[in-house]
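Q: I have 262 residues here and want to know how they pack in 3D. Can you give me a structure?
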Amino acid sequence: MAVLNARRVLVTGSNRGIGLELVRQLVRKNNCPEHVFATCRDPDGPLAQDLRNLAAKHQGVEIIPLDTCDPSSIKAAATKVTKRLKGAGLNLLINNAGILKPGSLETETPENMAEVYKTNVIGPMMLSQAFLPLLRKASRESPQNGMSCSKAAIVNVSSEGGSITNVYMWHLAHVVSYRCSKAALNMLTRCQSLGFDKDEILCIALHPGFVQTDMGSSVGQAPLTVDESVQAILKTLSHLSEKDNGAFMNWEGNTLPWCDQH
C-alpha cells in the first residue's frame, strides 16, 4: 500500500479551509513530516488563531508569513525555509492559496480579473520558482527512483471550474475571473511538468472538490466536508508517480478533462 512520506512540506493559505486541514491531517499522520511550513499573509491576525493553536501543539509546524502576490515576501519566506532546513531539500510544495470573486460576463471587471489572476496563477508560479532549488535538492538527494510526492512535487490546487470541457457548476456561479485563472493554472502546471521533468519533480493540478469552506459556501451548498476532501487528497498524493506528471485530477485521483480533444 502506498504511503505519503514527504518529510518536509510547505502549504500556502494555511490559516483556514483546505490549507489548515492539510496541515492538521499531515501532523496527525503516524509518519508525520519533520517540517510542515504553514504560510499565510497575517500569522498574528485573528484569522490565523486556529493555525496558531495547531502550531502550539505540534513542534513540527512552523508558521511562515507569506503574501503569495508579493515577490519580496516570497523571497523572504524562501530564505527562512532554506535556513530552517539546514541543507535539506523540500519534498512537497502545495500551492493552495487562492481567491474567488463573484462576477458574471456582464459584471466582471478588469480589476477583479487582474487580482484573481495575480493570486491564483502568478502566485503559484513565483512560489514554484522561489522553492525550485529546494525541490531540486530533495529530488537529487532522494534514494527513490522515478517521481512521487514523497520525493519532490508541486501540487497546484486548481478547480474543475477551470475545465474548458466541463465548465463545472456554471449553473450555480459564473465566476468568470476564477474560471479563467484556474484554466491558466492548469496550463502552468502542464508547463512545469515538462520543464521540471528532468529534475524528477512531479507536478499536478488538483481539484479538491466542491468543499464546505468560506470560498465554497459563497457559490452554493457544498456537499464535501473539508475533512473528507483532505483525507482523500492525501490518499491520492500517496499514489502518484511519473505516469501522473502534468495531470489534472480530482481529490479522489480521477483524471479530469481540461480541454476538448479533437
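Q: Anything worth noting?
A: The chain has a mean pLDDT of 91. The two ends are 37 Å apart (CA to CA).
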